[in-house]
Amino acid sequence: MPVRTAKQMKPTLKVTKSRTPNQSTSGVLRVNQSATNTRSVNSSVHRKSFTLAGDSKVLDKGSVQTHKQTVQVFDETGKDVTPQPLYQPEAGALQPKQSKIFTNHDTSGSTLSDFLSTAYQTTNASFAAPFTRSVFGSSSVSRSSQSTMESMNDEIEDPSSKKDISLSLSDVQVRREEIKEQIKEHMLDCMVDCYLTETETIWLLDMPALSVSMDSEEAEVVKGRNMAYQELCKNRLGNDKYMERPMQTFNGAPKAKEVQSDSISMVEKATMATHWDIYDSYVSDGGAGNAADGASPTKLDISTLHRVHSSRPLDRTMSGASAISTASTSSSRIDTEAFVVQGENESDPEDVLHSEKFLQDLLVMERAVLENIYQPKLAAYRQLPILPDPNREQKAGDERDGQDDVSLNPALERLWAFNCELTMGRNVSNMAWNKKNPDLLAVGYGQFDFKDQKSGLVCCWSLKNPTWPERIFHCESGVTALDFSTCSPSQLAVGMHDGSIAIYNVQSTEKTPVIDSSDCAHKHTGPVWQVRWVENEHGPGGEDKRETLISVSADGRISKWFLRKGLDGIDLMKLKRMRSVRKHLGVKERKIEALISRHASGLCFHFHNNDSNIYLVGTEDGLIHKCSCSYNEQFLGTYTAHIGPVYKITWSPLCPDVFLSCSADWTIQLWRQDLFTPILGFTSTHKAVHDIEWSPRWATVFGAVNEGRLEIWDLGSSILDPIIVSMARPGVKLTSLLFATQTDCVLVGDSGGQVSVYKLKNLNAGEGKEVNTLHDIIRSTLASQL
Amino acid sequence: MAEVEETLKRIQAHKGVIGTIVVNAEGIPIRTTLDSSTTVQYAGLLHQLTMKARSTVRDIDPQNDLTFLRIRSKKHEIMVAPDKEYLLIVIQNPSE
């Protein structure tokens, strides 16, 4: 217990005990006295004494005072500056006894009770206190303690000293009480009277109640107020208004902290969501879930609702709608998925040139460029009105002259020519239109003569590009025959000078034929002069229209080819030489000459348009045989008129019984099927007629090509002369002729490699009645002959 | 590859063709017969126009796509074959 002596508290002060008695007469006073006495030193004792008083129990503080030691305060100089007590009790005042009870009451005096008990019991115990005190005290203190102990010993009932001791022990300071030496032994036996008095009540708050008479005018107000107050008190419990809730929060000490970060750079980015952008995203993602969802009509309905633009009709492609349906059903999936735009890094910009699409684009571009150049010509070809270019500079009188010069005479207008450097110098041997695409033209280049044979060439030209062929096929030997298939329009049969037949597929860009007859055992040994795809309407077994490839060659065989592990052919007919011929020509029968071969060379053939069984064959001898597929030994008939090799036979497309033939004897003959003599013969020049063809539109018109010129004959106008004559370019011979199927244009191939396109103008052959006209002509001619 | 070069040469040799330009997606000229500044100018302007044209076509029908673009002016005709990776431009004077 920390007990500090006065000496310790104030080192400057010397505290001595004095023996001045401190007697108090009454308990209260004593209390006060003791209080006053000890005021200077120990205020806590002061408090203690008051608490004792507050308990309203009379405590004899006199005992406190009796053994209270007077504190004397000396300053540095030694002057006694002890504050005089306010009240000087009379000397010798009786010290009232104090009962034990009160001492026990004091909680703080628990030590006191201990002391008392000890004091009662033994004196040794009481010695403990001064001993304890002496621990802290000085010699003077010990002296005083001894004196107190004496007093304590003297007066057992005097607990004041003990109290003092206890108080002094529990307090910070030690109080010196002056021991009254007047307490003699004789006083111990005296009866001491203790007077208990109650302290006055101390009022802290006094609110006198105000009563109001019921009769007074304020009564109602007061009553109401009382009621209100009662209500308030009642409501107070659960009322939210009266929620009392103390709170205490810990306010953390604020601390300022500075942080520095990189400045956030903001970039604005704008994008536009277009219909196709959304569509692309759907397609790229919805394709995966397509199989799972399927395309049910209900889903389609939902999908149309979900579509961004509802104007899209349902009959658009299903793939698009089903993709959207997957999108609608798995929209959440699409939302969460991120669309990765594939970025292809072309390391080499030249790679662009290698792409397939680039080549295609180039072709399209070339055609577009050429269209600009050839547009008037192509328009004329197509029989479209030629619109003058409004931006074109009006060259002086040029076009107007052309337009004014509208002659009514039939004329040929040269539109353009299919020509390129590859074909220059080559002889055009044959031309054929594609059956499916009438703008596609196949031209075969090959020499007729045996002498100067070059490698052959087949070019497929398109009308859209007259300057470069679409396909180029190089052949080993000269191409002498060409034909496009009807059933499979991309197949092109090519007959060559060495007798082999090849079939090319023009759709692919391969340069090699699909199939070749070079390995065939039955291949022709002479140049194949003509090939044809012939449709068999009644094929074996009643199948659909099938086509067979039939060729005629100089070895005198007409062969039918079919695919069976390669091109294989069987002979339809072997052309035999006929000897008993030429009677009507008036040539004497000569001696039977030694024949080089028993077969006559076939130069051309033509199947009947309606009856695929009957065909005509022209031979090198000038004979035309009518044959049938069913008979491969015998001819059905022979038409004799020509004295030179028959280069071409052609049935009239409009008149079924009439056919034309041309030969090297400068003549063109018009025949009718049933007559074995020609009805009409046409001669105009002294040149061999290489090619003839009927016009597909007019029954009385046909074209003929001899070496020097192109002739258009119109039998309705004149049977003696051609109506249009066009001279060939100097140095070239015209070799082949082809009519355009849908327009009135004619194509002429020459030995220089050019294929010129001519437009027939002002051909006054009437429509429809030409057949009759032809028949009339024939009839009249026959009639005149008879 | 040789075909490509040949075709390009042929196109350039046609009547009235003023220039042929092939640029890749980044605008770098791969083949050109015009001078550098003209090439860059044509390529830049036509690229934007092609984008707009393609956007227009696809907005109307997202399954459609632009294949060819021809601009006819008083003096020339500019033909553009667009693609994702390149731009093929031919300038022709058709009335020559």
UniProtKB/TrEMBL annotation, chain B:
Q: Which InterPro entries match?
A: DYNLRB1/2, Roadblock/LAMTOR2_dom
Q: Which GO terms describe its molecular function?
A: dynein intermediate chain binding
Domain Roadblock/LAMTOR2 per the UniProt entry, residue ranges? 4-92
- List, alphabetically, the Gene3D superfamilies matched: Dynein light chain 2a, cytoplasmic
Q: What is its main location?
A: cytoplasm
Q: Keywords of this protein's UniProt record, alphabetized?
A: Cytoplasm, Cytoskeleton, Dynein, Microtubule, Motor protein, Transport
Choose any GO biological process term that the UniProt entry carries and state it: microtubule-based movement
Q: Where in the cell is it found?
A: Cytoplasm, Cytoskeleton
One GO CC annotation, please?
A: cytoplasm
Family affiliation: Belongs to the GAMAD family.
Give the protein's biological function: Acts as one of several non-catalytic accessory components of the cytoplasmic dynein 1 complex that are thought to be involved in linking dynein to cargos and to adapter proteins that regulate dynein function. Cytoplasmic dynein 1 acts as a motor for the intracellular retrograde motility of vesicles and organelles along microtubules.
Q: What is this protein called?
A: Dynein light chain roadblock
Q: Which organism is it from?
A: Electrophorus electricus
